[in-house]
Structures are given as structure tokens and as C-alpha cells.
Design a protein that fits this description.
The chain is 54% helix and 7% strand. The protein has 29 helices and eleven strands.
């Protein structure tokens, strides 16, 4: 069966039917979705459907763009800028599924499809951004915009800048170079991510001697045994997935095995079958070529022009200011843990593979706090209820499981999200546990964003993907305190997506400057250690006993434990990112040595030869944070300052929550983030708010 693209959702209904491609409606990716809230019919979608759907949607997008270019009428905001914004809706739907599942539930065949599809998408993107006639129409509107609303002006500004920053003003010869470089970069970043995933999955540490695991807490042993059983192995297995890796590093006294495990993690995708070191060089050099071609000295200059920080000197000064304020305290943290280790009989230099064990043991002794103590009160189902409760108390949201909504994996649960008045806001998908088909880490993504067309609002489909400790045969999933913070962090992103409102999908929800997007997520972490919040839901999974006040007091007391060390560690990532992306000449050196030099000002733990994080640093080499990792610390300053208002007025204060929702969460990218922040807080953020929160200097 075939039908004209007009009936299947191509954006511009003014396109003559003869110009529209025919769509095969037997392909579920192209057919209308007669599902609750038009959610994806995952169970009907097979791998064979993706490539034909991509090809058809690309053709549809080309027809839509051609209609804009060939419009005989004078360029206007509506017939050019809005029409361009609405184009590609079918393609966006397919991309939203495929590339999100490529991270969350991938396979070798899916990765091969990505390798074939990505060049076509890059070619389409270049054909649009380098189209002289299209840019001329956009430029004509930009130069004579007429009377527009704030939201419309922002869309026009973003559209014009996107063309200018993507080569529209280049000569024909340079446009061809731009096409070449961006196509190469697209393929390289895709390969980087696939190598990192494969390298992570390729390493396992198998243990068959019961004596080696006898000392470990029961939840660690059970997790290792469960991992081994899932692989058809006997004994106990540790992987490089953090719910497996970190507990072993924290509780085992076997230095040899921990060194082996740490080195494997610290050299992931560095050499061997899935080597990313040459790809790192190619990525940074290709990015430099693109920046130079567009008239910038380095890639960071290009990126930061379109960020809240504004430019490279501002970011470098920001990182340097935080480093100067905290480095001596981080060194003191290292000495403190080292002296404690020596008091326990440890001899020699405290190495990175010793750090988790002794820092946790010292924390337990100083604060009488460890994962074993708190995990029974953080059973995943209880934590989930607690997170939902916080959203309800702050914003009036309610979450109801909907089994009628199709999901992409049995581990996933879908929820209807409604506002306090009962109106539908979003669908939320929760995907909690590690698997070989899933990238490591935790993230929020969307299958669909929010928008409003001709008065009809489309609400978002939001997904949270995490890698929490799996339940075992005898124990449910029990989270560490850090995992509770992670849940709240990613849920903050979800709130940003679910509460977003506006006419244009490209400017709603999390479609904001990269160094602003972490504010809604990081501010949520503050509630994790607030007694009046934990008292509402944190109970022992076996006895139902409320989390004791003394444990909450210990959590609060330990909140700033190793805060300076953790801060400098994050700064080391940001400075490494900036070092790679402030290069002004092609890099042909040694990746490991470059990283050692970049991290030298932030180095606290001893340097270990043969290791480097860059070959597996997906955030900056395949995840969109190139010259942007500093944004985590930037947003920490914002969130420390913003949360101080909640502390002043009350952590559940309705007035403050309403202001945060209206000025931050709902507005998306419709206004400049500094204007939105000042409207909420009353003043610009100051770095000292973060320093004070870490308790340094007191």
C-alpha cells in the first residue's frame, strides 16, 4: 500500500501532490500511529523497516525544503522560517526512535544501519544549510523581520545563525570542503561511540575462587554471581559497567585484581581491536578544519559563540577561578585519605585503584556512613515514588503507569504524566538496568518534543535511561546514595522536557544552550540530602522502618566529604575538553601524553602510564559536549545559587517552585538563559555560591 506523503505527515500542506514522495504505509515507521498519545509502536517495528523509512523521510524533507525555496511569494517569517522549522517532521520522528534506541538497546545490525544511514543524513543537513537560495530567503527575513513576538524573534535569530554557522556564506569551493569535513566528522563520532561500547563490553573479570569474594558485602557478591549466571559462566563476574565496577573497587582488598580492573577501565578503547586513539586525533583535527573554514581560530571559539558563557576566555577564566579556589583543598583530601590508609597499615603511595576502598572506609569511620548502611532505605521502587512525590509537591505532577503504551524492552515502563488539573503533559519511559545492548551512564532523551501548531499542542515523549544495580534472586534493586542523586539529576532533565511549552519544537524543553541545560538537572540533586524530603518516603525495604534521623544526619554531614577532590576531578575533564578544542594546529602527537599535560594543573592522584580517558570520553567525542564539558560546573554555580532561594523560602515552597517552572522549565530556549535566570533569581549567579556550598574555607 502506498499513500502520498501529504496524508502521512509531511509538514507543508501547500506542496503540490505531484511533488510529494509516496510512502509505504505497511512500514510502521511511515504509517500514522494509532496508539495512546501517538506513541511509537515499538513491537511492530523491525530492523528491516529503518533504512527504507529513512530514505522515504529524507525524500519527504527534500520536497518540503524545495517547496520553500521555490515559493514565488516574497520571503516572510511564516512562509520561510516557520515552514523550515516545520519541515522534516517525519524524519525527526524516525531519528528520534532510531538514534535513541541505538544508545539504549543496540545491536550489531543496528550499528551497521547507522553506518549506512548517517552519511545520508549528513548530506541532507549540508544540502539544506548550504543552499544559497534558501539562505537568501532566510537572510531577507532576518534583515526585514517586521513585528514579531519574543518567541518568533528568537526562532528567526537561531535560524539565521544556524545557516551562518554551518557554511551558508562560504564560497562554492569552501562549501565542498565543509561537506567533506562534516561527513567525515559524522562518521568518526559514530565509530567512536560504537568502539567505546564494544570495548566496555569486551572486558570482564572472572573470579572462581570463593575466598576472593568472601569479604565482599552480600549485595556485591550477589550482583557478581548474577552477572556470571547471565553470561552462562560459573563463579563471579565483574564488568566495566559502573554498577558492577564501582562496588568491587570500593569493597575488595585484592589490590592486584583492582589494579587490573582499574587499568582496563582507564584504558578503555585505548589500543586493541576497538582502539579510539587515532579516531580522537581525526575528530579534533576535523573539527579544527571546520572551525578554520568558518573563520574561527579554534573549535572552542566556534562552539562557545553560541553558548551562555559566550567565548573561550570566559570559560578558561571560569575553570581557572574554580581550580585556584579548590586545588589546595583537593590535595588536602588526598593527603587525608592517604594518611588514613597508612594508619590502617597501607604502605607506599596511594594509587587510583586504592582510592575507592580507602576513601569509602574513611568516610564510614568518620561519618559512620557507607553504601551497605543506606542502600536498604533506597530500594528502587521507593526511590521512584520519592522522585514522583517531589515532582508532585513542587509542580503538582502525577504519574500513572500505562500498560497500553508499547515499550522497546521488557525492562521499560511507560507512565502518563498529568498536571495538577488533570491535563495530560507527557509520556515518561523509565529504563533502569544495565545490559550489553545499552551504553553505560545515565541520560534523558526524547522520542518527541513539545510544540504547538495552529493552536493544536503536541506533548513530549520523554525517556530516562540509567544503569542502576540490578535486582538479584533474593534482593530487589537497592540504590547507593549516589545513584539516588543520579536519578534525581536525570529526572530534572525529564521535567525540563515534560514541562516545556512553546510553538517551536527546536526551542522547547531541553533545547537550550548546553551550559544552561544542566541547571534543571543539577538543582534536583539538592533534595537528595534534605531530611524533610527523605522522611517522606525513604523506608527500609524489609521492615518498612523510616530512615533513622541519625542516618540522615550522617548523609548531611558527609555531603561535602571530598567535595574539593570531586570538584577538581570534574575540572580535569573540562580542562581536557578545552585543551583538545583550543588546538590551533593539527594534532599528530601522542594522545596519552597530551592528556597528561592537559590534566597536569588538576592532577591529584598519581599519573599511571598506559592510561587515558580521551579514547572513551564519549561526552566530547560522540555526545555533543565538545568544548562544552565545563557546562556541568557552570550549571553547578547556577544551581547552588538557585537552590539557595529554596533554602531561604522552604524546599517545597510553592511560590519559588512556580517561578522556577514558569521562568526556567517551561520557557526552553525561547529567551536568552541569563534573562530567564535573573528573572527567577533576581540577580546574576556568582561562583562563590558553589564554593560556599562545598563548605571550603570554613
Amino acid at each position: 500500500m502506498a499513500i502520498s506523503a501529504l496524508a502521512a505527515g509531511c509538514a507543508d500542506n501547500s506542496i503540490p501532490r505531484a511533488q510529494l514522495p509516496e510512502l509505504d504505509l505497511t512500514n510502521p515507521l511511515l504509517a500514522a500511529w494509532e496508539t495512546p498519545y501517538a506513541t511509537p509502536p515499538f513491537s511492530k517495528i523491525e530492523l528491516k523497516h529503518y533504512e527504507p523509512a529513512f530514505d522515504a523521510a529524507i525524500a519527504c524533507t527534500r520536497a518540503e525544503v524545495a517547496a520553500i525555496v521555490e515559493n514565488p511569494r516574497k520571503p516572510t517569517f511564516v512562509n520561510t522560517v516557520v515552514a523550515l522549522e516545520r519541515s522534516g517532521s517525519l524524519l525527526g520522528r524516525i531519528e528520534g526512535l532510531f538514534f535513541n534506541l541505538l544508545e539504549a538497546d543496540s545491536s550489531d545490525e543496528m550499528q551497521e544501519i547507522a553506518q549506512r544511514v548517517q552519511p545520508k543524513l549528513t548530506e541532507l543537513e549540508n544540502d539544506i544549510s548550504l543552499n544559497e537560495e534558501l539562505f537568501a530567503r532566510v537572510k531577507a527575513v532576518y534583515e526585514h523581520p517586521g513585528r514579531l513576538s519574543q518567541e518568533d524573534r528568537m526562532l528567526l535569530e537561531k535560524t539565521y545563525r544556524r545557516f551562518a554557522r554551518n557554511g551558508a556564506a562560504l564560497s562554492d569551493a569552501d562549501k565542498e570542503l565543509y561537506r567533506k569535513y562534516t561527513t567525515e566528522l559524522s562518521a568518526l563520532t559514530l565509530q567512536f561511540g560504537q568502539n567505546a561500547l564494544a570495548a566496555t563490553n569486551a572486558f570482564t573479570l572472572r573470579i572462581t575462587d570463593p575466598k576472593v569474594v568472601a569479604e565482599l558485602p552480600a549485595f556485591v557478591r550477589e550482583g557478581m554471581a548474577s552477572e556470571a549466571a547471565a553470561r552462562g559462566e560459573k563463579g563471579w563476574t565483574v564488568t566495566l559497567q559502573y554498577p558492577s565496577y564501582l562496588p568491587f573497587m570500593t569493597y575488595s582488598t585484592n589490590r592486584d585484581l583492582k589494579e587490573q580492573l582499574w587499568r582496563a577501565n582507564a584504558s578503555c578503547a585505548m589500543g586493541g581491536k576497538f582502539d579510539n586513539t587515532e579516531i580522537v586525533k581525526k575528530i579534533v583535527n576535523t573539527r579544527l578544519k571546520i572551525a578554520n573554514l568558518l573563520g574561527y581560530k579554534c573549535y572552542a571559539d566556534y562552539v562557545l559563540e553560541d553558548r551562555m558563557a559566550g567565548d573561550t576566555p570566559t570559560v578558561m577564566a571560569f575553570l581557572d577561578e574554580l581550580l585556584e579556589a579548590t586545588k589546595s583543598w583537593a590535595d588536602a583530601d588526598y593527603r587525608t585519605v592517604g594518611e588514613y590508609a597508612a594508619s590502617q597499615g597501607f604502605q607506599g603511595e596511594l594509587m587510583p585503584w586504592d582510592w575507592s576502598y580507602y576513601s569509602d572506609k574513611y568516610k564510614n569511620e568518620k561519618y559512620a556512613l557507607n553504601d551497605e548502611l543506606v542502600k536498604p532505605y533506597f530500594e528502587l521502587e521507593h526511590v521512584k515514588k520519592g522522585v514522583f512525590l517531589l515532582a508532585n509537591k513542587l509542580y503538582g505532577l502525577n504519574f500513572t503507569p500505562n500498560k497500553e503504551i508499547d515499550v522497546y524492552h521488557p525492562d521499560v515502563t511507560a507512565y502518563d504524566v498529568t498536571d495538577r488539573d488533570g491535563s495530560f503533559l507527557a509520556v515518561l519511559y523509565l529504563d533502569f538496568f544495565p545490559r550489553a545492548s545499552k551504553q553505560s551512564g545515565a541520560w534523558m532523551t526524547e522520542f518527541r518534543g513539545a510544540k504547538c501548531v495552529d493552536g493544536e499542542e503536541t506533548r513530549p515523549l520523554v525517556s530516562l535511561v540509567m544503569n542502576f544495580t540490578k535486582p538479584t534472586a533474593s534482593t530487589p534493586s537497592l540504590l547507593t546514595f549516589r545513584e539516588v542523586e543520579t536519578f534525581l539529576h536525570e529526572f530534572g532533565h525529564a521535567l525540563h522536557g515534560m514541562l516545556g511549552r512553546g510553538k517551536y519544537e527546536s526551542m522547547t524543553g531541553t533545547n537550550v544552550y548546553r551550559d544552561f541545560v544542566e541547571l534543571p538537572s543539577q538543582i534536583m540533586e539538592n533534595w537528595a540530602s534534605r531530611k524533610e524530603y527523605l522522611d517522606l518516603w525513604a523506608v527500609h525495604y524489609q521492615t518498612g522502618e523510616k530512615i533513622p534521623a541519625e542516618i540522615v544526619d550522617r548523609i548531611v554531614a558527609a555531603q561535602n566529604y571530598l567535595a574539593a577532590y570531586a570538584n577538581v576531578r570534574q575540572l580535569s575533564f573540562g580542562m581536557t575538553d578545552m585543551a583538545w578544542h583550543t588546538l590551533t594546529k593539527p594534532f599528530e602527537g601522542n594522545v596519552e601524553q597530551f592528556e597528561v599535560e592537559a590534566m597536569a594543573p588538576t592532577q591529584v592522584l598519581p599519573v599511571v602510564a598506559g592510561t587515558a580517558m580521551s579514547p572513551a570520553f564519549g561526552h566530547i567525542f560522540s555526545g555533543g559536549y565538545a568544548a562544552g564539558y565545563y557546562g556541568y560546573k557552570w550549571a553547578e554555580v547556577l544551581d547552588a545559587d538557585a537552590f539557595s532561594l529554596f533554602k531561604e523560602k522552604g524546599i517545597f515552597n510553592e511560590e519559588v517552585a512556580r517561578s522556577f517552572r514558569e521562568n526556567i522549565l517551561e520557557k526552553g530556549g525561547s529567551e536568552h538563559p541569563m534573562e530567564l535566570y535573573v528573572r527567577f533569581r533576581g540577580h546574576k549567579p556568582e561562583t562563590r555560591a558553589l564554593i560556599e556550598r562545598m563548605g571550603l574555607g570554613k
